């Protein structure tokens, strides 16, 4: 019976590139998605999709593979989201970092839980994140902004997460599966 390193395939250049690309997949898809959603397609409430997509990606990858989405990348994606959405620079970077921190803190309970529990947790985190963004922008403008965008963003987050999670789960099991490299 063969044991130990003899069972492993040799690390060729192509295998190393495959492994690296699988590790980079979550961050690449987050940045690419933000850029694509930032393009002017003329969809109603398209601007509300950007933070929902960013929150869903950060939540999902922080929950199931936190090493693939490093903190500096999350901060840079938050700055990109600020630049695309014309929000105060650094606002979404802080919010996404707080979301990542909260998700990693709750990871032991959420990762093995049923989908309905993880969906509910994401919805709660998304409502808090949207509320924080609204409160910070209201504070910066020294007046209460309308709460309607926060409600829409929360509804988008709750409604779109199952679809986004389905796509992310498929990617997690195929294109981003490091163990298949």
TrEMBL record:
Coiled coil region boundaries: none
What InterPro entries is this protein classified in? Cell_shape_determining_MreD
Transmembrane intervals = 20-41, 73-99, 111-135, 150-169
Q: Indicate whether DNA repair appears among the record's keywords.
A: no
Q: Which Pfam families match?
A: MreD (PF04093)
Q: Which UniProt keywords apply?
A: Cell membrane, Cell shape, Membrane, Transmembrane, Transmembrane helix
Example of a GO biological process term: regulation of cell shape
Q: Does the keyword Membrane apply?
A: yes
> Gene Ontology cellular component?
plasma membrane
Question: Membrane topology for this entry?
Answer: Multi-pass membrane protein
* Compartments, as annotated in UniProt: Cell membrane
Q: Which family does it belong to?
A: Belongs to the MreD family.
Q: What is this protein called?
A: Rod shape-determining protein MreD
* Taxonomy of the source species: Bacteria, Pseudomonadati, Pseudomonadota, Alphaproteobacteria, Acetobacterales
